[in-house]
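hi support,

uploading two proteins for the ticket. first:
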Amino acid sequence: MDRYVFYAKDSLDAKTVRAARATASALGATVVRTGVGTLLLEIAAGDVRKLARALPDWRYSAERHATRIPERTPAERVRRTVASAAR
């Protein structure tokens, strides 16, 4: 089973998300998590297109794990620059 993220195209209300969640469950997808206008689903790769046709107002993509490094504050940048110059 692969994980896919489905995004609501226009509507972000809870009723739309609940209806999409029920449709996904009926088609055999496991709902991992829901958010504002998004669904994280676990579903077989072959069935994802069938689900996408059942949810025409939703877009989807494969789940990607990404780690973001937080941006350093200006004060931290100055401290690092001074510390590296002192070496």
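and the second one:
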Amino acid sequence: MSIGENLLALQILKENYGELAQSLAKCLTKYPSLSFMKIAEHMDVEKKLIAKILSILITNRLVDYELNSRQFVEYKLNLSNILRFIHISK
């Protein structure tokens, strides 16, 4: 995805889910795939709050997760699903 699409996706998340969701997404745009502990290190926010944000974004299919080779769950931002908010009329 281009830089413009990344910035647009971050703005969409901020408007619909708040600043914490946007900062989590910033972490996931800088590093394409992160474990929960790495996200917690980068965000400097309570782990409980990060878990809530992740669960909301996963439920809405805006963040994907998968098991890596070392059996850790890694999270990835699903930019194409975030950008679909533009096509949804309110």
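thanks. also noticed: The chain is about 60% helix and 15% strand.
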